[in-house]
Task: structure prediction
Amino acid sequence: MRKPMMAGNWKMNNTVPEALDLARQIYQLVGDTTLVEQVLCPPSLCLHPLKTLTAAMPFALGAQNCHWQESGAFTGELSPPMLRELAQYVIIGHSERRQLFGETDETVNKKTRAALAHDLAPIVCVGESLDQNERGETVSIITAQVRAALTGLSAEQLQTLVIAYEPIWAIGTGRAATAQTAGDICGLVRSILREMHGGAVADTTRVLYGGSTKPDNISAIMEQPDIDGALIGGASLEAASYAEMVKITAQVYGG
Ligand code: PGA
Result:
């Protein structure tokens, strides 16, 4: 069975003291529950202090981006070996990075390969824009993005991979995809994994949904058989709403 994941993408929010505070508050609310994997993805400079603070708490940490080279003259970038000391996960190809920072399917693939090569589990984001959605191109866009992200990788290399389906029109808009639509597209992602890498990879890879998830829609989303968790933006910045989503998910999974 795939362990459900609630990953909080804090984006460019929280100073170090605020990040530490938020983690403490979440821990007070969720306690030691391990039924749901809780991944906190703060700004990178918060990873080190959070790692120290959360050593005895049931949190995994994730970065929000990485470069594909190990080191070198890449001002402002962080490499997978640097991040691996502090985090287990790295979000790759979030739509904000694709739209605002010029990331392409090709760089997403390079980053995914580099992360896996350094034992950092990628959370690869895919998603269509509103225009693409309205033109009925969702299936072809998602298929192309997943295929491109995984180019050149073998089934053995994909063991820690997580994919997040995040329709761009649902991110930060308050307009989540319906549970049915989210479930169908996560099912499509799983079928692409099956076609590319076989049943074992398709059955074990976690596929998340992201885009305006909140305590009041998370239960319906988590009931979809092909959805294994959520990548949560806004609602992960408040301890109470994030903790509530963790608890609801644990209930859906029989906790
Ligand atoms: P949102 O963001 O939950 O605020 O819509 C999700 C994301 O960008 O990962």
